[in-house]
Design brief:
263 residues, endopeptidase activity, metallopeptidase activity, membrane, mainly alpha, hydrolase, transmembrane helix
Length: 263
């Protein structure tokens, strides 16, 4: 029976997608690692290609953990993935994807526009290290691929399928264990917390390039957390793939707007 299938195939599909997403970072690492080591006066002890490959291990481990955690607790917490349900329950995949495609794209574009509008107006308040330049309008194929694959797929597997599902599951079992499903308030807390954690995860990278003023800190949280709330809502209401599609189109919107600004 379909309901008795073990979701091992969807687990492998998620791992494969995560691996593709991580490999999309390779060209960026090859380019950036020598610059970063030179700035820190650290000698390059191996070929940059080998170092770039080694640098991919950590993100792949994080994605693998997200895949594992999601497969253990996501559906138990009331969340879904069409890929998972196609594997586990035999539900059709393409018709369900078609049904959520337009609203997901729309919310992704709206998120991107809002973020870029806020970024545009706070630019005068930011230090020079965070100012937009025309170099950001030069998007290579590899840049585009990493934004779509790593941002749209890997980060959603880690943050929604993994982190958000786990937060909701833990809060449900601690505070509402007598209920058969977590309530909306628990889910909203999970949505907001997972978005905030992603924003705070950029503290080190931001602090490395500029002084962490209140404006810079607020910008960091907003740029990296606002859209996460939208993606979290989509994950809850429409499924993981809806969050992925929205995330991808937020990045497409960023690219289109930045290219237009520096024409």
């Amino acid at each position: 029976m379909h309901s008795e299938r073990k979701p091992w195939r969807s687990f492998l599909v998620f791992l494969f997608l995560g691996l593709l997403a991580v490999l999309s970072l390779y060209p960026m690492y090859v380019e950036l690692l020598p610059q970063q080591l030179a700035e820190l006066n650290i000698p390059l002890m191996m070929s940059v290609e080998v170092l770039a490959l080694l640098s991919l291990i950590n993100p792949f481990i994080l994605i693998s953990l997200g895949v594992l955690v999601g497969h253990l607790v996501a559906t138990r917490s009331g969340f879904t993935s069409f890929i998972y349900e196609k594997d586990r329950l035999g539900k059709p995949l393409l018709p369900r994807l078609q049904a959520i495609l337009l609203p997901s794209i729309l919310l992704g574009v709206i998120s991107g526009v809002i973020i870029m509008v806020v970024e545009y107006f706070i630019q005068p308040l930011l230090p020079s290290a965070l100012q937009m330049t025309d170099s950001e309008a030069t998007i290579t194929f590899y840049d585009f691929a990493s934004r779509i694959l790593y941002g749209g797929i890997a980060e959603e597997i880690m943050l929604r399928w993994g982190v958000m599902s786990l937060l909701v599951f833990m809060m449900w079992k601690v505070f509402q264990r007598k209920l058969t499903q977590p309530t909306q308030i628990i889910i909203w807390i999970g949505i907001i917390l997972s978005a905030l954690l992603f924003g705070l995860g950029h503290y080190g990278a931001t602090a490395a390039v500029t002084e962490m003023t209140p404006v810079v800190f607020a910008r960091m949280l907003f740029l990296n957390g606002f859209a996460g709330i939208i993606y979290g809502w989509l994950y809850w209401k429409k499924g993981l793939e809806a969050a992925m599609i929205a995330h991808m189109f937020t990045h497409v919107t960023f690219i289109v707007i930045i290219t237009f600004l520096f024409l």
